[in-house]
């Protein structure tokens, strides 16, 4: 009872901070399609700047890490936990846009580069960094025509600059995009004069601006002047980046009425033209998996029905002894495995992860976690993980009690700290590397404290509460008695050895998800939106079925060859699909990504190691519970004196 009193005291002690944290986390949460904003003519539109991103380095930087024009006071937008973890740094900008008031050749500022600033710009251009901006929660896009398909596609953000050569010269120069032509698309309300923003596009240009006389507030540019009808339409005389070079930043604003309604404004952003969902190949893959699942289920039902019927019809003890296969090991099949404590811990962690994924998928499929709610997915994952600690404690304690364990507090602590501890250790090392690169992707100390707080003050007490109730319940009774002396396991055929059967078992679950995995990796590492959560939910269900069925089939074959050590084997059989996931991630890295920075490579493999470890725990737990249910079912059907 003293542990429960301690837990209650800890919860009471953390309650106030928890409330504050949850208020902060949910501060910027809204449901897409629920919060449209109307703008009258002349209303000020807040253009915000976000991080600089690159698919070559995967290291985000804040916009003002480069010497761009700054507003009088830089203000951070309120960010949720997920946005901070993603490396988003949303700040105000010096760009002034008023609703339905076009502006030409607006001067933002004039800067003279020093050697250090010129070097920074050149490095970002070499790494193909993109500048991201936001208007009314819509990301800035650059529209361009694809050459292979007659379709307008969108690039998220515009390049910092470009490399090129002057005509007749072989020397490569760096040029900056210093003139932006914004196009704000709006949908006008028929009844009122108000309008809603449905698109935010830009065309970037590099222009070496010129002016007459000395520079002051009233200086007129000769290269871009609305009075003399001179506008920027090309980058024919580009602005070079060199030490002591003067750069003038300018912008135009155009407004375009659109037929697209506010509720459909994200549709163009979510068109994955470069990676069109190959419906045929995915459906084909699902059909193969379903066909295999049907065959597996049919074989199991026929074989088991025949086996149990035959066994129950045997009349004499002699006949029973002549029977070979899974019936002979009934006295050993429920013997607790070696390292049973660790198995309880991993099953508990798997239940926690499964609960998090299931609830998150349902919310995402219902549209609660769409891309318009930046950071919502990450925030939801963290909060769900924390609250699912209740089920982790309960399931690990139930299993532990079945194995005749008595020290439930010890097993609870291990459940609360083993899986999250390993993940946090890897994450901490990766974060230190990002910090060393001065990237905005590094998680600040305050957020790190919030993560540790969520873990220690909410997740750990919940694991204890779940464990307390799980251990209080009566122990799960075995359907058959376990013999005092363990039976000797006969020598196994090469294809029934643990390593071979475990490696074979992971292929089918991986096959069920690997096409979908391609799109998930593309969205994460190539910075595209992932939004087909309904389809992902279907794939997740197929993963559950395949993990369960492959584990049951291989467990049945194992028991038939009189090997009763199925506890760990069932977990590792379906869990081995995580090994294939990591190997596929390595294949994806070398074939699809253009990462050259060693730190970025370490980050990629570090994060994919965390993902594979989580997938191992998830798929392993599904396989374990399937075999647990299966063995109890078949052995409870036998008549044993």
UniProtKB/TrEMBL annotation:
Major location (coarse): membrane
Coiled-coil parts of chain: none
Subcellular location: Endosome membrane; Golgi apparatus membrane
InterPro entries named among the record's database cross-references: EMP70
GO terms for biological process, alphabetical: protein localization to membrane
A GO CC annotation given for this chain: endosome membrane
Keyword annotations from UniProtKB, A to Z: Endosome, Golgi apparatus, Membrane, Signal, Transmembrane, Transmembrane helix
One Pfam family it belongs to: EMP70
Membrane topology field: Multi-pass membrane protein
Regions crossing the membrane: 279-301, 343-369, 375-394, 415-436, 448-471, 492-525, 531-559, 571-590, 602-630
Signal peptide location: 1-28
Family listed: Belongs to the nonaspanin (TM9SF) (TC 9.A.2) family.
Protein name per Swiss-Prot or TrEMBL: Transmembrane 9 superfamily member
Organism from which the protein derives: Fraxinus pennsylvanica
């Amino acid at each position: 009872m003293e542990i429960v009193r301690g837990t209650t005291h800890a919860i009471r002690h953390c309650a106030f901070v928890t409330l504050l944290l949850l208020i902060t986390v949910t501060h910027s949460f809204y449901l897409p399609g629920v919060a449209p904003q109307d703008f009258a003519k002349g209303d000020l539109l807040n253009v915000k700047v976000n991080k600089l991103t690159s698919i070559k380095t995967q290291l985000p930087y804040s916009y003002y890490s480069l010497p761009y024009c700054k507003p009088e006071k830089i203000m951070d937008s309120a960010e949720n936990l997920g946005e901070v973890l993603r490396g988003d740094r949303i700040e105000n900008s010096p760009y002034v846009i008023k609703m339905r008031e076009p502006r030409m050749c607006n001067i933002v500022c004039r800067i003279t580069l020093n050697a250090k600033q010129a070097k920074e710009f050149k490095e970002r251009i070499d790494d193909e960094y993109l500048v991201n901006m936001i208007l009314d929660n819509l990301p800035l896009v650059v529209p361009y025509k694809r050459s292979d398909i007659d379709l307008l596609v969108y690039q998220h953000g515009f390049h910092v600059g470009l490399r090129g050569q002057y005509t007749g010269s072989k020397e490569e120069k760096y040029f900056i995009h210093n003139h932006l032509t914004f196009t704000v698309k709006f949908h006008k309300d028929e009844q009122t004069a108000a309008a809603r923003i449905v698109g935010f596009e830009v065309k970037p240009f590099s222009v070496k601006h010129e002016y007459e006389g000395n520079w002051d507030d009233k200086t007129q540019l000769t290269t871009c002047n609305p009075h003399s009808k001179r506008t920027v339409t090309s980058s024919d005389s580009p602005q070079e980046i060199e030490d002591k070079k003067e750069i003038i930043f300018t912008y135009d604003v155009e407004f375009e009425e659109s037929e697209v309604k506010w509720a459909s404004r994200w549709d163009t952003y979510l068109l994955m033209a470069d990676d069109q969902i190959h419906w045929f190949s995915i459906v084909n893959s699902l059909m193969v998996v379903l066909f295999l699942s049907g065959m597996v289920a049919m074989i199991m039902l026929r074989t088991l029905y025949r086996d149990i019927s035959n066994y129950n019809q045997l009349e004499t003890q002699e006949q029973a002894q002549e029977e070979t296969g899974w019936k002979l090991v009934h006295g050993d099949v429920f013997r607790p495995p070696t390292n049973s404590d660790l198995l309880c811990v991993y099953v508990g962690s798997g239940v926690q992860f499964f609960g998090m994924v299931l609830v998150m998928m349902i919310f995402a499929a219902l549209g609660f976690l769409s891309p318009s709610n930046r950071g919502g997915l990450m925030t939801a994952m963290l909060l769900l993980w924390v609250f699912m600690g209740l089920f982790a404690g309960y399931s690990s304690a139930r299993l532990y009690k079945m194995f005749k364990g008595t020290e439930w507090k010890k097993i609870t602590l291990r459940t609360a700290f083993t899986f999250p501890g390993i993940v946090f250790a890897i994450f901490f090392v990766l974060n230190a590397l990002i910090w060393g690169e001065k990237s905005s992707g590094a998680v600040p100390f305050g957020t790190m404290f919030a993560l540790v707080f969520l873990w220690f003050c909410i997740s750990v007490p919940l694991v204890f509460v779940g464990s307390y109730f799980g251990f209080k319940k009566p122990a799960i009774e075995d359907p058959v008695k376990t013999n005092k002396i363990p039976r000797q396991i006969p020598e196994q055929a090469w294809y029934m050895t643990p390593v071979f059967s475990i490696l074979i078992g992971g292929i089918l679950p991986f096959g069920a998800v690997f096409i979908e995995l391609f799109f998930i990796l593309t969205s994460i590492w190539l910075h595209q939106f992932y939004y087909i959560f309904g389809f992902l939910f279907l794939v997740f269900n197929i993963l559950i079925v395949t993990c369960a069925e492959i584990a049951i089939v291989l467990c049945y074959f194992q028991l038939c060859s009189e090997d009763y050590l199925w506890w760990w084997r069932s977990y590792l059989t379906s869990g081995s699909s995580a090994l294939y996931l990591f190997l596929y991630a390595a294949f994806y890295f070398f074939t699809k990504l253009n990462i050259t920075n060693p730190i970025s490579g370490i980050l990629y493999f570090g994060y994919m190691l965390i993902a594979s470890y989580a997938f191992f725990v998830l798929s392993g737990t599904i396989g374990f519970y399937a075999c647990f249910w299966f063995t109890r079912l078949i052995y409870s059907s036998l008549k044993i004196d």
